[in-house]
Amino acid sequence: MTKIFGIKIRREPFTDEEYVAAIRKVVARSKRSAAFHAIFALFFLGATLCLFGFIDKAENLVAPDSVRMGTFVGFMLGALAGFQFMLAVQSLIWAVQRWSGLRTERLLLRYHDEVSPACPPNP
Predict the structure, then answer these.
(1) In CA terms, which of 57, 93, 110, 123 is 20 to 30 Å from 43?
(2) Which residues contact residue 24 at a Cβ distance below 8 angstroms, ignoring those fewer than 6 apart?
(3) Element (H, E) at 21
């Protein structure tokens, strides 16, 4: 059953050559994806540093007698800065994984390229 109410649930199975072509696209885009994640890591790290700078200057924005409001603002900005830093670290991890990862796919493509001329295609 591939359709419910005329909507495709799953696509038709790939042939071997279509699957190899799809894996080649993923491997070819891995370096570009790594650069994309590295740029996001730098962006989030910069946003975190700007937020920490704002927290440092926020002491002067709050009146000395309103300690509770200053504490609340400090907690919220600290939580936001922590979240931004976590996003920067996660983007950096994804960048490293995309840059050095996909080893299995690269090995399988190399094996496919070596074996395919020796074996005739299956009907």
Answers:
(1) 57
(2) 109
(3) helix 16-58
Based on the structure, what is the number of domains in the chain? 1
What is the distance between the alpha carbons of residues 8 and 76, in angstroms, rounded to a whole number? 45
Show pLDDT as tens, one digit a residue, over the chain (123 residues). Answer: 567 777 777 777 778 788 888 888 888 888 888 888 899 889 988 888 887 777 767 666 655 665 666 677 778 777 888 888 898 899 989 888 888 878 888 888 888 888 877 776 655
- Residue 6 placed within a domain: no
Partners of 7 in the β-ladder: 4
106 domain-assigned: yes
Structure tokens at 59: 């002491």
Q: Which domain holds residue 85?
A: 15-115
Is 10 part of a structural domain of the chain? no
CB count in 10 Å sphere of residue 95: 20
From the list 78, 86, 79, the residue with the least C-alpha distance to 56 is: 78
